[in-house]
Amino acid sequence: MKKVTAALALLAVSFYSYSQDVNKLINQNEVEQVIKTLSADDMQGRATFTPGIEKAAQYIEGQYKQAGLVPLTGNTSFRQNFTQTRVTALKTLANINGKLIPQDSVFTSSSATAFNWTNNSDVQIVKLSADKNFRNEYMGYAQSGKKMLILVDPQFTSIFQNLRNRTLKGGINNQPNDAQQLVFVLGNHDDIKSFDVSYTGKSEKLALFNIVGMIPGKTKPDESVVFSGHYDHLGIIKPVKGDSIANGADDDASGTTAVITLAKYYKKLNNNARTLIFAAFTAEEIGEFGSQYFATTVDPDKVVAMFNIEMIGKASKFGENSAFITGFERSDFGTILQKNLEGTAFKFYPDPYPAQNLFYRSDNASLAAVGVPAHTISTDQIDIDKLYHTVGDEFSTLDVANITSTIRAIALSSRGIVSGADTPKRVPKLEKK
């Protein structure tokens, strides 16, 4: 009994010491400085393919260098460069029953740069009626590989216009299929006797870059743990009260700040058994392309776990000292994290928003798809967050103390996985929905 008591006392002392290290090494003022910089107006909202994201990338590179990280093996810098083809719709001319459809009531989604339809027998005419789920129907069209003339009920005018604006800015597809040609027309068109469509677009290869650094493992260097967040956001959008910069302070400057802070923390400790990889992903907002590319550059069987951090800027629905984990039930990742937090006030909960499909809406999905226990940690109340994807997502709306406590909790909860003592169970390879 005395031996057990002594062991528990030693464990308590050890944990207290570890907690003191976290509180000392993860400083709230430093956290505030990083997130303030990333979400400042001069970053112009960090949209992919803009000068703003280049500025953010340079800042993150500087933070990695300051922390003492090194590039991934085989890389000469922290930039993980790759290219994607962007297709931008230029003009869609559509006639139905001899009547020209107004430009604001038609758009095309295709990786092709030109096509012409004239009552083609291989074009499927589809009605997206008011009683259908727009998102589900759209996903089905996008995966069909067909030529479709899609007639959209006016009830979906707002969604239609948002999608049309996106196509005019250009879109990226990892698996281009020129044979798939989707033409969306807004309005009631009941009796279609004839139609023709003429579409033109342009294709261009553009450079993208993740910012990735690492701390090599001391005793298990072949096994890695990934800490990640996306550093891109929406950029310049429609002005509201004179403000057109979508700063993305919570989404996801908060997560990127956590990645940078954890990198500095673990480098100061410098006792990690496993290799730690710190990834700031690009192009999450336009399709998770940065994390998808990253997944092709690592051996997924050697990635032990992924801590993806997304929107930790405010208290969760469970109150202070709490966060939720997407896909909690898919592995024992969350159970391991909570075990390492015993003796603290912080608690991780399963995702309370299953209808939002959050597991597939962030960069963890790219690694989960290849079997990695990859989860997103967040505190965002997504069902009532009125600042999400607006110009109102600014530093002034954040709770820096909440961000700091969440980062400290991630540091404490990850220590078993970092040290090699804990290994989450592998998960079945997944198909992204």
Task: Characterise this structure.
The protein has 433 residues and is α/β, with parallel strands linked by helices. It has two domains: 22-70 and 216-419, Zn peptidases (Aminopeptidase, 3-Layer(aba) Sandwich), CATH 3.40.630.10; 86-204. The protein contains eleven helices and 17 strands. The strands form three sheets. Strands 1, 2, 4, 7, 9, 10, 13, 14, 15, 16 and 17 form an eleven-stranded mixed sheet that branches. Strands 3-8-6-5 form a four-stranded mixed sheet, covered by helices on one side. A two-stranded antiparallel ribbon has the order 11-12. Helix 8 links the parallel strand 15 (322-325) and strand 16. The longest helix is centred in the N-terminal third of the chain and has 24 residues, at 2-25. 42% of the residues are buried. The model is unreliable at 4-16 (pLDDT under 50).
Number of strands: 17
> Tell me about the biggest sheet?
11 strands, mixed
Percent helix, as a range, is 25-40%
Please trace the helix and strand order, writing H or E for each element. HHHEEEEEHEHEEEEEEHEHEEHEHEHH
User: How far is the first residue's CA from the last residue's CA?
Assistant: 53 Å
pLDDT averaged over residues: 92
How many distinct folded domains?
2
Coarse shape? elongated
Q: What is the CATH third-level topology name of the largest domain?
A: Aminopeptidase
User: Count of helices?
Assistant: 11
Quick summary:
The chain is of the alpha/beta class and 433 residues long. It contains eleven helices and 17 strands. The chain folds into two domains: 253 residues, Aminopeptidase (3-Layer(aba) Sandwich), CATH 3.40.630.10; 119 residues.
